[in-house]
Protein backbone atom coordinates (compact mmCIF):
# COMPACT_ATOMS: atom_id res chain seq x y z
CA UNK A 1 0.00 0.00 0.00
CA UNK A 2 2.79 2.39 0.90
CA UNK A 3 4.94 1.97 -2.20
CA UNK A 4 2.20 1.20 -4.73
CA UNK A 5 -0.53 3.57 -3.59
CA UNK A 6 0.62 6.18 -1.04
CA UNK A 7 4.00 7.12 -2.54
CA UNK A 8 2.70 7.88 -6.09
CA UNK A 9 -0.17 9.86 -4.59
CA UNK A 10 2.19 11.92 -2.43
CA UNK A 11 4.33 12.64 -5.49
CA UNK A 12 1.33 13.87 -7.47
CA UNK A 13 0.04 15.99 -4.54
CA UNK A 14 3.45 17.65 -4.22
CA UNK A 15 3.46 18.57 -7.92
CA UNK A 16 -0.07 20.01 -8.03
CA UNK A 17 -1.19 23.42 -6.84
CA UNK A 18 -4.34 22.11 -5.17
CA UNK A 19 -4.86 21.76 -1.44
CA UNK A 20 -5.52 18.18 -0.29
CA UNK A 21 -8.25 17.22 2.17
CA UNK A 22 -6.51 14.65 4.34
CA UNK A 23 -9.19 13.42 6.77
CA UNK A 24 -10.93 11.28 4.13
CA UNK A 25 -7.57 10.14 2.74
CA UNK A 26 -6.27 8.97 6.12
CA UNK A 27 -9.56 7.34 7.05
CA UNK A 28 -9.52 5.48 3.74
CA UNK A 29 -5.92 4.46 4.34
CA UNK A 30 -6.72 3.19 7.87
CA UNK A 31 -9.65 1.11 6.62
CA UNK A 32 -7.71 -0.44 3.71
CA UNK A 33 -4.58 -1.17 5.78
CA UNK A 34 -6.44 -3.03 8.52
CA UNK A 35 -8.90 -4.77 6.19
CA UNK A 36 -5.91 -6.09 4.20
CA UNK A 37 -4.72 -7.64 7.47
CA UNK A 38 -8.20 -9.04 8.14
CA UNK A 39 -8.99 -10.42 4.66
CA UNK A 40 -5.62 -10.51 2.89
CA UNK A 41 -4.59 -7.91 0.33
CA UNK A 42 -6.73 -9.38 -2.47
CA UNK A 43 -9.92 -9.28 -0.41
CA UNK A 44 -9.52 -5.90 1.31
CA UNK A 45 -11.52 -2.67 1.00
CA UNK A 46 -10.37 -0.11 -1.57
CA UNK A 47 -11.43 3.16 0.09
CA UNK A 48 -8.00 4.77 -0.38
CA UNK A 49 -7.22 3.18 -3.71
CA UNK A 50 -10.56 4.16 -5.26
CA UNK A 51 -11.14 7.42 -3.42
CA UNK A 52 -14.20 8.40 -5.46
CA UNK A 53 -16.24 5.41 -4.31
CA UNK A 54 -14.24 5.20 -1.08
CA UNK A 55 -15.34 8.68 0.01
CA UNK A 56 -19.00 7.61 -0.11
CA UNK A 57 -18.25 4.67 2.17
CA UNK A 58 -16.17 6.87 4.49
CA UNK A 59 -19.18 9.22 4.72
CA UNK A 60 -21.23 6.21 5.86
CA UNK A 61 -18.68 5.51 8.64
CA UNK A 62 -19.17 9.14 9.78
CA UNK A 63 -22.93 9.03 9.38
CA UNK A 64 -23.34 6.01 11.65
CA UNK A 65 -21.91 8.02 14.55
CA UNK A 66 -25.22 9.96 14.60
CA UNK A 67 -27.62 8.81 17.29
CA UNK A 68 -25.02 6.37 18.65
CA UNK A 69 -25.93 7.21 22.24
CA UNK A 70 -29.56 6.12 21.71
CA UNK A 71 -28.66 2.97 19.82
CA UNK A 72 -26.04 1.77 22.29
CA UNK A 73 -27.39 3.01 25.62
CA UNK A 74 -31.16 2.76 25.07
CA UNK A 75 -31.69 0.30 22.22
CA UNK A 76 -35.13 -0.94 23.32
CA UNK A 77 -36.54 2.58 23.81
CA UNK A 78 -35.06 3.67 20.47
CA UNK A 79 -36.73 0.79 18.59
CA UNK A 80 -40.03 1.29 20.41
CA UNK A 81 -40.14 5.03 19.68
CA UNK A 82 -39.17 4.30 16.06
CA UNK A 83 -42.21 2.02 15.75
CA UNK A 84 -44.34 4.87 17.17
CA UNK A 85 -43.00 7.23 14.52
CA UNK A 86 -40.47 9.07 16.74
CA UNK A 87 -37.03 8.75 15.17
CA UNK A 88 -34.13 9.32 17.56
CA UNK A 89 -31.79 7.96 14.88
CA UNK A 90 -32.09 9.62 11.46
CA UNK A 91 -33.24 7.42 8.57
CA UNK A 92 -30.03 8.35 6.70
CA UNK A 93 -28.00 6.76 9.52
CA UNK A 94 -30.07 3.57 9.36
CA UNK A 95 -29.49 3.44 5.58
CA UNK A 96 -25.74 4.05 6.00
CA UNK A 97 -25.53 1.31 8.62
CA UNK A 98 -27.23 -1.09 6.20
CA UNK A 99 -24.86 -0.10 3.39
CA UNK A 100 -21.81 -0.83 5.58
CA UNK A 101 -23.25 -4.12 6.84
CA UNK A 102 -23.87 -5.24 3.24
CA UNK A 103 -20.36 -4.19 2.26
CA UNK A 104 -18.84 -6.25 5.07
CA UNK A 105 -21.07 -9.26 4.30
CA UNK A 106 -19.83 -9.08 0.70
CA UNK A 107 -16.20 -8.98 1.88
CA UNK A 108 -16.84 -12.03 4.10
CA UNK A 109 -18.60 -13.93 1.30
CA UNK A 110 -15.66 -13.32 -1.01
CA UNK A 111 -13.24 -14.44 1.72
CA UNK A 112 -15.36 -17.56 2.24
CA UNK A 113 -14.76 -18.62 -1.37
CA UNK A 114 -11.03 -18.97 -0.70
CA UNK A 115 -11.33 -20.09 2.96
CA UNK A 116 -8.91 -22.98 3.61
CA UNK A 117 -8.63 -23.49 7.39
CA UNK A 118 -5.54 -25.67 7.03
CA UNK A 119 -3.54 -23.18 4.93
CA UNK A 120 -0.98 -20.73 6.38
CA UNK A 121 -0.83 -17.81 6.78
CA UNK A 122 -4.27 -17.60 8.31
CA UNK A 123 -6.10 -14.32 7.89
CA UNK A 124 -8.03 -12.75 10.78
CA UNK A 125 -11.19 -13.71 8.88
CA UNK A 126 -10.14 -17.39 8.72
CA UNK A 127 -9.16 -17.56 12.40
CA UNK A 128 -12.32 -15.88 13.63
CA UNK A 129 -14.55 -17.98 11.40
CA UNK A 130 -12.80 -21.24 12.40
CA UNK A 131 -13.02 -20.50 16.13
CA UNK A 132 -16.63 -19.34 16.06
CA UNK A 133 -17.57 -22.47 14.09
CA UNK A 134 -15.78 -24.60 16.71
CA UNK A 135 -17.81 -22.84 19.41
CA UNK A 136 -20.99 -24.13 17.75
CA UNK A 137 -22.14 -21.31 15.45
CA UNK A 138 -23.16 -22.18 11.91
CA UNK A 139 -25.09 -20.97 8.89
CA UNK A 140 -26.46 -17.43 8.79
CA UNK A 141 -25.70 -16.77 12.47
CA UNK A 142 -22.03 -17.65 11.96
CA UNK A 143 -21.83 -15.49 8.84
CA UNK A 144 -23.45 -12.47 10.50
CA UNK A 145 -21.46 -12.78 13.74
CA UNK A 146 -18.16 -12.83 11.84
CA UNK A 147 -19.24 -9.89 9.64
CA UNK A 148 -20.43 -7.83 12.63
CA UNK A 149 -17.14 -8.29 14.51
CA UNK A 150 -15.06 -7.47 11.44
CA UNK A 151 -17.13 -4.40 10.57
CA UNK A 152 -16.45 -3.13 14.12
CA UNK A 153 -12.73 -3.58 13.51
CA UNK A 154 -12.79 -1.75 10.16
CA UNK A 155 -14.88 1.01 11.80
CA UNK A 156 -12.21 1.34 14.57
CA UNK A 157 -9.46 1.47 11.94
CA UNK A 158 -11.18 4.10 9.77
CA UNK A 159 -11.76 6.50 12.65
CA UNK A 160 -8.87 5.61 15.00
CA UNK A 161 -6.09 5.62 12.41
CA UNK A 162 -7.68 8.36 10.27
CA UNK A 163 -8.16 10.80 13.13
CA UNK A 164 -4.75 10.21 14.71
CA UNK A 165 -2.95 10.68 11.39
CA UNK A 166 -5.00 13.79 10.59
CA UNK A 167 -4.17 15.41 13.93
CA UNK A 168 -0.50 14.40 13.66
CA UNK A 169 -0.27 16.08 10.24
CA UNK A 170 -2.20 19.10 11.51
CA UNK A 171 0.25 19.60 14.38
CA UNK A 172 3.34 18.90 12.26
CA UNK A 173 2.10 21.40 9.66
CA UNK A 174 1.88 24.06 12.41
CA UNK A 175 5.30 23.15 13.82
CA UNK A 176 7.90 23.25 11.02
CA UNK A 177 10.82 22.85 13.45
CA UNK A 178 9.49 19.48 14.62
CA UNK A 179 8.83 18.51 11.02
CA UNK A 180 12.51 19.22 10.27
CA UNK A 181 13.63 17.21 13.30
CA UNK A 182 11.43 14.31 12.22
CA UNK A 183 12.75 14.47 8.64
CA UNK A 184 16.35 14.37 9.95
CA UNK A 185 15.59 11.21 11.91
CA UNK A 186 13.84 9.59 8.92
CA UNK A 187 16.70 10.42 6.53
CA UNK A 188 19.20 8.77 8.92
CA UNK A 189 16.93 5.73 9.26
CA UNK A 190 16.53 5.55 5.48
CA UNK A 191 20.32 5.50 5.01
CA UNK A 192 20.59 2.80 7.66
CA UNK A 193 17.84 0.80 5.98
CA UNK A 194 19.66 0.87 2.64
CA UNK A 195 22.77 -0.63 4.23
CA UNK A 196 21.07 -3.10 6.60
CA UNK A 197 17.82 -3.99 4.75
CA UNK A 198 16.02 -3.53 8.09
CA UNK A 199 12.58 -1.94 7.59
CA UNK A 200 12.70 1.75 8.52
CA UNK A 201 9.95 1.63 11.10
CA UNK A 202 11.56 -1.37 12.83
CA UNK A 203 14.41 0.93 13.80
CA UNK A 204 14.60 3.15 16.83
CA UNK A 205 12.64 6.27 15.77
CA UNK A 206 12.14 8.27 18.97
CA UNK A 207 10.92 11.49 17.30
CA UNK A 208 8.33 9.68 15.17
CA UNK A 209 7.10 7.76 18.21
CA UNK A 210 6.98 10.92 20.34
CA UNK A 211 4.97 12.71 17.61
CA UNK A 212 2.41 9.91 17.59
CA UNK A 213 2.19 9.55 21.36
CA UNK A 214 1.83 13.30 21.89
CA UNK A 215 -0.83 13.46 19.16
CA UNK A 216 -2.77 10.65 20.83
CA UNK A 217 -2.42 12.43 24.18
CA UNK A 218 -3.67 15.84 23.01
CA UNK A 219 -6.16 14.53 20.43
CA UNK A 220 -7.24 11.05 21.55
CA UNK A 221 -9.22 9.50 18.70
CA UNK A 222 -11.54 8.01 21.29
CA UNK A 223 -11.69 10.68 24.03
CA UNK A 224 -14.37 8.94 26.09
CA UNK A 225 -16.40 8.51 28.14
CA UNK A 226 -15.98 4.75 28.03
CA UNK A 227 -18.85 3.31 30.02
CA UNK A 228 -18.77 0.32 32.35
CA UNK A 229 -21.42 -1.09 34.69
CA UNK A 230 -20.32 -2.13 38.18
CA UNK A 231 -20.61 -5.87 38.93
CA UNK A 232 -22.79 -7.72 41.39
CA UNK A 233 -20.67 -6.82 44.43
CA UNK A 234 -20.21 -3.35 45.93
CA UNK A 235 -17.20 -1.90 44.13
CA UNK A 236 -14.30 0.34 45.13
CA UNK A 237 -12.86 2.49 42.37
CA UNK A 238 -9.64 4.27 43.33
CA UNK A 239 -10.44 6.46 46.35
CA UNK A 240 -14.22 5.98 45.96
CA UNK A 241 -15.64 3.16 48.14
CA UNK A 242 -19.09 1.56 48.18
CA UNK A 243 -20.21 2.15 44.62
CA UNK A 244 -23.47 0.19 44.32
CA UNK A 245 -24.07 -2.68 41.93
CA UNK A 246 -25.29 -1.86 38.43
CA UNK A 247 -24.01 1.72 38.45
CA UNK A 248 -22.73 3.16 35.16
CA UNK A 249 -19.26 4.61 35.64
CA UNK A 250 -16.78 5.93 33.11
CA UNK A 251 -13.27 7.22 32.54
CA UNK A 252 -12.04 9.51 29.75
CA UNK A 253 -8.64 9.68 28.10
CA UNK A 254 -9.52 13.34 27.39
CA UNK A 255 -9.28 14.19 31.11
CA UNK A 256 -6.57 11.69 32.07
CA UNK A 257 -4.33 13.17 29.37
CA UNK A 258 -4.53 16.56 31.05
CA UNK A 259 -3.44 15.16 34.44
CA UNK A 260 -0.52 16.28 36.66
CA UNK A 261 2.33 14.54 34.74
CA UNK A 262 1.58 16.77 31.74
CA UNK A 263 2.45 20.43 32.47
CA UNK A 264 0.69 22.84 30.03
CA UNK A 265 -1.45 19.90 28.92
CA UNK A 266 -3.15 21.71 26.02
CA UNK A 267 0.21 22.25 24.30
CA UNK A 268 1.31 19.71 21.70
CA UNK A 269 4.96 19.19 22.66
CA UNK A 270 6.43 15.86 21.46
CA UNK A 271 9.65 16.88 23.24
CA UNK A 272 8.03 16.01 26.57
CA UNK A 273 8.33 12.32 25.60
CA UNK A 274 11.99 12.80 24.62
CA UNK A 275 13.31 15.02 27.40
CA UNK A 276 11.58 13.77 30.57
CA UNK A 277 13.54 11.71 33.10
CA UNK A 278 12.77 8.08 33.89
CA UNK A 279 10.42 8.85 36.78
CA UNK A 280 8.45 11.48 34.79
CA UNK A 281 8.15 9.14 31.84
CA UNK A 282 6.84 6.36 34.07
CA UNK A 283 4.12 8.69 35.38
CA UNK A 284 3.26 9.98 31.90
CA UNK A 285 2.90 6.43 30.60
CA UNK A 286 0.74 5.50 33.59
CA UNK A 287 -1.69 8.33 32.77
CA UNK A 288 -1.62 7.75 29.00
CA UNK A 289 -4.83 5.98 27.94
CA UNK A 290 -4.89 6.38 24.16
CA UNK A 291 -5.65 2.69 23.60
CA UNK A 292 -7.47 2.05 26.90
CA UNK A 293 -6.16 -0.81 29.03
CA UNK A 294 -6.99 -4.17 30.59
CA UNK A 295 -9.57 -6.64 29.35
CA UNK A 296 -11.38 -3.95 27.33
CA UNK A 297 -8.18 -2.38 25.97
CA UNK A 298 -7.58 -2.01 22.24
CA UNK A 299 -6.67 -5.17 20.32
CA UNK A 300 -5.74 -3.06 17.27
CA UNK A 301 -3.01 -0.98 18.94
CA UNK A 302 0.02 -2.71 17.41
CA UNK A 303 -1.26 -2.76 13.84
CA UNK A 304 -2.51 0.83 14.18
CA UNK A 305 0.87 2.08 15.40
CA UNK A 306 2.59 0.18 12.60
CA UNK A 307 0.24 1.61 9.94
CA UNK A 308 0.57 5.16 11.29
CA UNK A 309 4.37 4.98 11.50
CA UNK A 310 4.55 3.70 7.92
CA UNK A 311 2.26 6.49 6.71
CA UNK A 312 4.04 9.35 8.50
CA UNK A 313 7.49 8.03 7.54
CA UNK A 314 6.44 7.94 3.85
CA UNK A 315 5.12 11.51 4.03
CA UNK A 316 7.83 13.26 6.04
CA UNK A 317 10.90 11.52 4.60
CA UNK A 318 10.41 13.35 1.31
CA UNK A 319 7.72 16.00 1.71
CA UNK A 320 6.78 19.04 3.76
CA UNK A 321 3.22 19.87 4.70
CA UNK A 322 1.61 23.17 5.65
CA UNK A 323 -1.95 24.28 6.40
CA UNK A 324 -3.58 25.31 3.12
CA UNK A 325 -6.95 26.43 4.48
CA UNK A 326 -7.98 27.16 8.08
CA UNK A 327 -10.42 24.63 9.54
CA UNK A 328 -11.87 24.36 13.03
CA UNK A 329 -9.93 21.38 14.39
CA UNK A 330 -11.49 21.38 17.86
CA UNK A 331 -12.49 17.80 18.65
CA UNK A 332 -16.20 17.15 19.02
CA UNK A 333 -17.57 15.21 21.95
CA UNK A 334 -18.48 11.61 21.14
CA UNK A 335 -17.20 8.07 20.76
CA UNK A 336 -14.71 9.42 18.20
CA UNK A 337 -13.32 12.96 18.54
CA UNK A 338 -13.88 14.20 14.98
CA UNK A 339 -12.77 17.79 14.22
CA UNK A 340 -15.63 20.31 14.14
CA UNK A 341 -15.22 21.15 10.46
CA UNK A 342 -14.75 17.45 9.58
CA UNK A 343 -11.87 18.33 7.24
CA UNK A 344 -8.21 19.34 7.12
CA UNK A 345 -6.73 20.94 4.00
CA UNK A 346 -2.96 20.67 3.58
CA UNK A 347 -0.40 21.67 0.94
CA UNK A 348 2.31 19.11 0.09
CA UNK A 349 5.72 20.17 -1.23
CA UNK A 350 8.86 18.22 -2.04
CA UNK A 351 11.17 18.74 0.95
CA UNK A 352 14.22 20.98 0.61
CA UNK A 353 17.49 19.16 1.39
CA UNK A 354 18.41 19.56 5.06
CA UNK A 355 21.38 21.86 5.63
C1 LIG B 1 -5.25 4.65 16.33
C2 LIG B 1 -6.20 3.74 16.26
C3 LIG B 1 -7.03 3.27 17.43
C4 LIG B 1 -7.30 3.90 18.61
C5 LIG B 1 -6.83 5.27 19.08
C6 LIG B 1 -8.11 2.98 19.39
C7 LIG B 1 -8.57 3.24 20.67
C8 LIG B 1 -9.23 2.31 21.46
C9 LIG B 1 -9.61 2.53 22.83
C10 LIG B 1 -9.39 3.82 23.63
C11 LIG B 1 -10.21 1.41 23.28
C12 LIG B 1 -10.80 1.15 24.68
C13 LIG B 1 -12.29 1.42 24.69
C14 LIG B 1 -12.89 1.21 26.07
O1 LIG B 1 -12.17 1.21 27.06
O2 LIG B 1 -14.12 1.05 26.14
C15 LIG B 1 -10.23 0.46 22.18
C16 LIG B 1 -10.76 -0.82 22.24
C17 LIG B 1 -10.83 -1.67 21.18
N1 LIG B 1 -10.29 -1.48 19.91
FE1 LIG B 1 -9.23 0.14 19.31
N2 LIG B 1 -8.34 1.84 18.66
C18 LIG B 1 -7.68 1.98 17.46
C19 LIG B 1 -7.64 1.07 16.42
C20 LIG B 1 -8.25 -0.16 16.44
C21 LIG B 1 -8.21 -1.11 15.36
C22 LIG B 1 -7.47 -0.93 14.05
C23 LIG B 1 -8.97 -2.18 15.75
C24 LIG B 1 -9.26 -3.45 15.00
C25 LIG B 1 -8.35 -4.27 14.56
C26 LIG B 1 -9.45 -1.92 17.09
C27 LIG B 1 -10.24 -2.77 17.81
C28 LIG B 1 -10.59 -2.56 19.14
C29 LIG B 1 -11.33 -3.54 19.93
C30 LIG B 1 -11.87 -4.88 19.44
C31 LIG B 1 -11.47 -2.98 21.21
C32 LIG B 1 -12.09 -3.64 22.45
C33 LIG B 1 -13.50 -3.30 22.60
C34 LIG B 1 -14.08 -3.97 23.84
O3 LIG B 1 -13.62 -5.01 24.30
O4 LIG B 1 -15.00 -3.39 24.32
N3 LIG B 1 -9.00 -0.68 17.46
N4 LIG B 1 -9.60 1.03 21.09
From TrEMBL:
Q: Which UniProt keywords are given for this protein, alphabetically ordered? A: Heme, Iron, Metal-binding, Monooxygenase, Oxidoreductase
Record-stated family = Belongs to the cytochrome P450 family.
- The answer on whether this UniProt entry bears the keyword S-adenosyl-L-methionine reads no
**Where does the signal peptide begin and end?**
none
Which segments does the entry list as coiled coil? none
Q: Which InterPro entries match?
A: Cyt_P450, Cyt_P450_CS, Cyt_P450_E_grp-IV, Cyt_P450_sf, Cytochrome_P450_monoxygenase
UniProt entry tagged with the keyword Metal-binding: yes
Q: Which domain of life is it from?
A: Eukaryota
Which SUPFAM superfamilies does the UniProt entry name for this protein?
Cytochrome P450 (SSF48264)
This chain's protein is named Cytochrome P450
Specify which residues bind heme according to the UniProt entry for this protein.
298
Pfam families in the record? p450
Which cofactors does the annotated protein need, by name?
heme
Q: Which GO terms describe its molecular function?
A: heme binding; iron ion binding; monooxygenase activity; oxidoreductase activity, acting on paired donors, with incorporation or reduction of molecular oxygen
